[in-house]
């Protein structure tokens, strides 16, 4: 399987950029992980949005889900023209009032509040979700391709925590937000730093793609902070093999 970066900024997009959004392609279909601002317009370069088998939303911060609204308008337009029926499953943190509100706001999706450690299947993948360490409930996901056994972890926004270690222990590629550099990381708080990500890559012997790039920093600053060829800095439209 491969994961294609559609947007890699946070918490707001760089000029002409997009925030979190990652398209996973397997032999059986497509999955979107997060739907941040500017991401919907970029899906069409790679597949028809209505063909996406499932959407996963790590958490309900706008840089991770704001384009759900325009995605829903798109599906509504197709449905009115008789070109789409049904609802696309969308896996979200299991906060009952949030799930009910999402169901009302985005009726062309079927929202599923994920269970900790529960297993879900779509597009030839097994998905396992785990709550991580962020200001609001944020669920990391490990996608295991059934045909190959390859494993992708997307951690969304999180600081270090035991649950992140459990996800990373069985993982071939880790895609995760690590927007802070150096002294910006103060221990507490809901985000990793580039240096912390590198430490975890060494600890769990992984390859990683660092994303959620904060536009106040240049790509070069992130590269200098990690300085390890096992950690790549996310680039829009780049594909990473898992
Ligand atoms: Zn974010
Ligand atoms: Zn967040």
Strand elements, count: 14
Question: What is the CATH class?
Answer: Alpha Beta
Radius of gyration: 17 Å
- Element-level helix/strand string: EEEHEHHEHEEEEEHEHEHEE
What portion of residues belong to β-strands?
A: 25-35%
Oligomer: single chain
Query: CATH architecture, please?
Result: 4-Layer Sandwich
Count of helical segments? 7
Percent of residues in helices comes to 10-25%
Which structural class should the secondary elements be placed in? alpha/beta
Question: Can you tell me the number of structural domains?
Answer: 1
Using the alpha-carbon principal axes, give the shape.
globular
Give a verbal description of the structure.
The chain has one domain: 4-Layer Sandwich (Metallo-beta-lactamase, Chain A). It has helices at residues 40-43, 62-65, 68-80, 96-105, 162-169, 194-204, 219-226, and strands at residues 2-7, 21-26, 29-33, 54-56, 88-92, 109-113, 119-122, 125-131, 139-145, 151-154, 173-177, 208-211, 231-233, 239-241. Helix content is 24%, strand content 28%. Strands 6-5-4-3-2-1-14 form a seven-stranded mixed beta sheet. The relative contact order is 0.16. One zinc ion is lined by residues 59, 61, 134, 157.
SSE layout and pairings?
Elements: E1 2-7, E2 21-26, E3 29-33, H1 40-43, E4 54-56, H2 62-65, H3 68-80, E5 88-92, H4 96-105, E6 109-113, E7 119-122, E8 125-131, E9 139-145, E10 151-154, H5 162-169, E11 173-177, H6 194-204, E12 208-211, H7 219-226, E13 231-233, E14 239-241
Parallel strand pairs: 3-4, 4-5, 5-6, 10-11, 11-12, 12-13
Antiparallel strand pairs: 1-2, 1-14, 2-3, 7-8, 8-9, 9-10
Bound molecules: zinc ion (2 copies).
């Amino acid at each position: 399987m491969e994961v294609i970066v559609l947007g890699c900024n946070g918490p707001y997009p760089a000029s002409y950029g997009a925030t979190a959004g990652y398209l996973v392609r397997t032999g059986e279909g497509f999955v979107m992980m997060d739907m941040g601002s500017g991401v919907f317009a970029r899906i069409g370069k790679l597949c028809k949005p209505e063909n996406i088998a499932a959407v996963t939303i790590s958490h309900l911060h706008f840089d991770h889900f704001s384009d759900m609204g325009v995605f829903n308008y798109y599906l509504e337009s197709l449905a009115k023209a008789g070109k789409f029926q049904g609802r696309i499953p969308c896996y979200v943190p299991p906060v009952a009032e949030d799930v009910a509100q999402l169901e009302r706001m985005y009726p062309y999706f079927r929202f599923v509040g994920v269970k900790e450690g529960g297993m879900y299947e779509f597009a030839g993948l097994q998905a396992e979700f785990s709550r991580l360490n962020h200001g609001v409930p944020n669920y990391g996901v490990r996608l295991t391709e059934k045909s190959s056994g390859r494993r992708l972890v997307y951690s969304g926004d999180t600081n270090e925590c035991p649950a992140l270690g459990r996800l990373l222990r069985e993982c071939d590629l880790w895609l995760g937000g690590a927007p802070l550099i150096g002294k910006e990381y103060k221990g507490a708080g809901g985000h990793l730093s580039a240096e912390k990500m590198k430490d975890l890559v060494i600890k769990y012997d992984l390859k990683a793609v660092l994303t959620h790039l904060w536009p106040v920093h240049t790509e070069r600053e992130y590269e200098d902070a990690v300085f390890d060829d096992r950690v790549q800095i996310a680039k829009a439209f780049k594909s990473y093999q898992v």
